[in-house]
Amino acid sequence: MTATLAQWLVTATWKGTLLIAILLLLHRFFRNRVPARWWCALVLVAIVRTLIPIAPAARFSVFNLVTSARAGAPVLVVANDATPPPPAGMKRAFLRSPAPPAPAPWVAGLLVAWAVGVSFLLGRTAWQLYRFRRQLAGSIDVVRDDVLLLVEACRTRLGVRRRVRILSTGAVATPSLYGWLRPTLLLPQGFLESFTREQLRYVILHELAHLRRSDVPLNWLATLARVLHWFNPLVHLAVLRLAEERELACDALALAALEAEERPAYGGTVLEIVERLRTGPMVPAAAGLTLGMSATPQQLKRRIVMIASFRRPSRHSLAFAALVLGIGLVTLTDARAGDVVYMRHAAEPLSPATKIVVDSLEQTMNVELTAASLDEVLHAVSNATGTTIKIADGAVDDAQRQSHVTLKGTNVPAHLVLMETLSAFELAVKFSDAGVEVIKPREGDHGPMRMRIAGPAPEEGALPRKVMIVQEGGEGEDLPGGPIIERKLDIKTDGQSPDGGRKHKVTFRSSKDGQETEGTFEIEVTP
């Protein structure tokens, strides 16, 4: 549990921080060239990236660029146990499933500190919300017919279907929208007497724009990101940027509902509210007219310039939407776990009978076994391929025979079922004219052919590796000839089961005779 939580926090932090840094840099140079609503969407993508624990792997993920160098580390494939040790930077191994490394002792200490910070901020947020709701208890419903009719007219103008309750309250300093499922427009005490009907109309349009954009649930999402990443200043900066762009986006929605001659008066109303009404901390369940605008000269100038130069959305909106969608696709997905290349080399030509045995494992099979023994799995592969598979004497001990294997897959290459199962038991195979023999790899063990695995050590659940079937007595990496078969597979290890077992999920893509096969294969081995 500790390792999983630490891995999520580290992964979410560096990926989200990288994306936030890029977007903030772009915002610095292009903020006035891209409409605020699209900046909101882009910053929101970055914030969501900091929250998602697991993202689907995809070829087009931008994070493939970060992990490609690690997945493509050099590999030395060995022909037998007597081959000299590989040079620096290369790794030699038998076919096996490595257990996830145990976290360092200091990791637990950092997680405790992180959890303390999260607990404190959650408690503070809950207390603020509790106090806010208690302050609302003494609020007065606004029942003036002219105000209610004005709200209804603004709802129709913006296309908002949900009815909105109106309260006059001392809980807020500026007009705010509270709640989402049951939205409520909160007006400071005395607001109706201090501002004109037209100014009230502008305020209502702005607050209903928050409702139409679903800014309150998005505010909760941003608050969650700040709580979970309280130690990350870039996340806090992204949330502030989201709040600023959100206000500008609501201004744009309100201005689009007004006539051109009314827009200067809208800007004047915003300035008057900023100057006359104090601003204070708000709860995540509310969104206000000045929320997120700290009234710095630069921010206020940008807001007024946007209002003064407002133009209705143009045909470029489709291009911006496509841009946001594309950025979301490449950043809210993860890199593939690593390319696994299955190849066959032979130092000498295979005999016709042995080649038939090897080729038989290229057949695909459907498999679904629950709590099966190793013998039952080998029997299923044998039935699917028509190949004789036997276990060598002494290769499997009593504990391995008592282990249970659960398999599930459709249209899976038989060799994948065989190798992934044997990897959990740290076993290998030999090929001969008579069929396949399961063996326990050890130094000095010779046979016609043996399956080997080599590859970089796994990182972050990835298991990039290369498997070769080689002729015993070959020359290691100098085996002649090119690959006969090549398969690329994505392999992720789901970690070690609580009872000490192993669990893998393989997403595979392969091609043979011009036809591509895709699917998933799951295996779990428990003692």
What does the model show?
- With 527 residues, the chain is α+β, with helices and mostly antiparallel strands.
- The protein contains 16 helices and 16 strands.
- Strands 7-9-16-15-14-6-13-12-10-11-8 form an eleven-stranded mixed sheet, with helices on one face.
- A hairpin with a 5-residue loop joins strand 14 (487-496) and strand 15.
- Helix 1 packs antiparallel against helix 2 (36-49), helix 8 (215-228) runs antiparallel to helix 9 and helix 9 (233-256) runs parallel beside helix 11.
- The relative contact order is 0.14.
- Mean pLDDT is 76; it is low at 68-100, 338-348, 444-491 and 493-498.
Shape: elongated
Write down the oligomeric state: single chain
Q: Count the helices. How many?
A: 16
Please describe the biggest sheet, giving its number of strands, its sense, and whether it closes into a barrel.
11 strands, mixed
The amount of beta strand, in percent, is 15-25%
- The Rg value, from CA coordinates, equals 32 Å
Residue ranges: pLDDT <50 for 5 or more in a row? 68-100, 338-348, 444-491, 493-498
Mean pLDDT: 76
Cross-sheet strand order for the largest sheet: 7-9-16-15-14-6-13-12-10-11-8
Q: Which percent range fits the helix content?
A: 40-55%
Classification by helices and strands: alpha+beta
Q: What is the total tally of β strands?
A: 16
- Measured between the Cα atoms of the first and last residue, the distance is 20 Å
